[in-house]
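in:
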């Protein structure tokens, strides 16, 4: 407390001394000793003001608070009423009034932006030098019109330059005095030099913090976008593979690709990718097709997946930039099911065509055959010694009639009587007939009938389907062969399977077994399986074939419908 009182007394002494000195100068009464005393008092006064104002430059980091406090210290000693602080805006190349005191909000709005040719501040900025205006009211300079409106008598504008960099301007004005002394101007100049450096530092730190906040927000948005992109990438139904062409490494792949290949992500990166150049590698045909697709629009590629299932895909690839390095994004469209559908449609078209032919000629051919057979029977009773020849002729006519009967089974417009029935009951009904046929050839037939619900079916057609598949299985087995008829549920399907332990179907014949009249048997008509497929199609069912050296299994999957 005592220090503050002493400092105040010392300050009052300095002020009084300065006033006496100024008064003595005006009256011409100060001698050499008085001049020395005045210089000493002025230096003390300058040090006092700079010391008080300088503390604010150290203590404050907020530009508005800093300048307000500095102005408060200066105005207490220099009779200041206004300060204006313009900051240079690099984007607009203009001066923006950021901090001020002593003017109204309406006056602020009128001078918020200045060009380098506007008013005293603009001139000081353009010239990069201090401009002093005394006795403002009597000045005719058009640049002074702005400060006249503020009621100022004296005004000084300083350019703020920090280590050669132009920061803005800082101006002070007084409504009480028409001029400033050289000491007061020197004090304001010294303060503005220090303010330039401090303000530049504060503005740089503020700009850096703002950039950091913007960068943090951009990073946050980028991470959010990456998460969204990763989520979208993972649920894309088409298999996608992204590879760096520079490092030859996988950048990313989605779940659809792993599902198609039937491997895990770890297996892809650790096992299959390192051996991608091997002749029997899982990824070799995929990569070759992807690279070819970079130069062509689409490439069709066939390959087995990890489970050995054949896959047919259409590959489309494009160049992508991955962290400023070239990369490749390959998209695969799985055409496997589509190709199967195409084969199925071709097969059905052939069956329908044959069915239409059967409907047209079947009945016409059977009529003359029936007549010929009748006459042959009559002749066999009257022609002695020729009965054996006539019996052979009748057998051949019966065989031709059976072929026509099967042929008519392919007719598209064949009448179907659908009723709810249990498949197991039908199998048990015809099982004695099947077992009798098997016993004659030294083979056995057993059943494994699981619990299944009733289904909508034509009993006559399903009976024909079962007998045809069983007959094919019995003929494919050697003596003492064993055939199993099974029924069971698989998800929402009722499955009928016929399994034999024959030598299996050769791979070059498996694609043709459903074609009408295709057979490898000497006495076969080639219509048995074609009829089976036709019956299955009419019941909305699908037939799968699994064959190998240990035997063949035909599985008919009927869709379960509500009873």
């Amino acid at each position: 407390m005592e220090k503050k009182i002493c400092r105040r007394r010392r300050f009052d002494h300095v002020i009084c001394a300065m006033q006496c000195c100024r008064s003595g100068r005006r009256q011409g009464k100060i001698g050499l000793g008085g001049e020395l005393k005045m210089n000493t008092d002025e230096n003390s006064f300058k040090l006092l003001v700079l010391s008080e104002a300088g503390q604010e430059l150290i203590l404050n980091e907020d530009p508005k608070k800093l300048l307000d406090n500095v102005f408060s210290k200066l105005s207490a000693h220099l009779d200041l009423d206004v300060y204006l602080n313009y900051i240079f805006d690099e984007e607009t190349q203009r001066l923006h009034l950021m901090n001020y005191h002593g003017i109204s909000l309406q006056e602020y709005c009128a001078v918020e932006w200045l060009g380098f040719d506007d008013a005293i501040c603009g001139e000081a900025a353009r010239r990069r030098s201090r401009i002093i205006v005394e006795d403002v009211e009597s000045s005719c300079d058009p640049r002074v019109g702005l400060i006249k409106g503020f009621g100022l008598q004296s005004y000084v504008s300083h350019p703020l330059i920090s280590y050669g960099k132009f920061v803005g301007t800082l101006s002070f004005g007084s409504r009480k005095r028409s001029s400033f002394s050289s000491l007061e101007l020197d004090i304001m100049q010294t303060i503005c030099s220090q303010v330039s450096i401090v303000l530049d530092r504060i503005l740089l730190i503020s700009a850096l913090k703002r950039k950091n906040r913007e960068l943090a927000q951009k990073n946050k948005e980028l991470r959010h976008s990456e998460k969204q992109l990763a989520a979208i990438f993972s649920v894309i139904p088409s298999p996608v593979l992204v590879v760096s062409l520079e490092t030859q490494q996988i950048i990313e792949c989605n779940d659809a690709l792993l599902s198609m290949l039937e491997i895990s992500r770890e297996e892809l990166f650790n096992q299959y990718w390192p051996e991608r150049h091997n002749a029997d590698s899982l990824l070799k045909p995929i990569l070759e097709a992807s690279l070819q697709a970079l130069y062509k629009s689409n490439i069709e590629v066939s390959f087995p997946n990890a489970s050995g299932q054949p896959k047919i895909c259409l590959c489309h690839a494009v160049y992508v930039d991955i962290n400023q390095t070239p990369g490749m994004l390959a998209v695969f469209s799985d055409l496997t099911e589509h190709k199967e559908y195409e084969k199925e449609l071709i097969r059905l078209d052939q069956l329908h065509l044959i069915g239409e032919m059967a409907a047209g000629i079947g009945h016409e051919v059977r009529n003359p055959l029936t007549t010929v057979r009748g006459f042959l029977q009559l002749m066999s009773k009257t022609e002695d010694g020729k009965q054996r020849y006539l019996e052979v002729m009748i057998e051949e006519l019966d065989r031709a009639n059976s072929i026509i009967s099967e042929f008519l089974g392919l007719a598209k417009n064949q009448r179907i009587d659908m009723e709810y029935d249990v498949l197991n009951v039908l199998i048990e009904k015809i099982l004695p007939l099947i077992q009798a046929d098997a016993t004659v050839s030294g083979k056995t037939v057993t059943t494994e009938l699981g619990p299944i619900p009733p289904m909508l079916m034509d009993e006559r057609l399903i009976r024909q389907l079962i007998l045809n598949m069983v007959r094919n299985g019995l003929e494919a087995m050697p003596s003492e062969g064993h055939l199993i008829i099974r029924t069971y549920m698989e998800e929402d399907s009722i499955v009928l399977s016929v399994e034999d332990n024959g030598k299996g179907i050769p791979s070059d014949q498996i694609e043709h077994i459903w074609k009408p009249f295709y057979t490898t048997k000497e006495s076969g008509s080639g219509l048995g399986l074609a009829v089976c497929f036709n019956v299955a199609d009419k019941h909305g069912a699908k037939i799968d074939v699994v064959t190998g050296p240990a035997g063949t299994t035909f599985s008919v999957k009927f869709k379960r419908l509500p009873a």
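note: The domain at 418-563 is CATH 3.30.565.10 (Heat Shock Protein 90).
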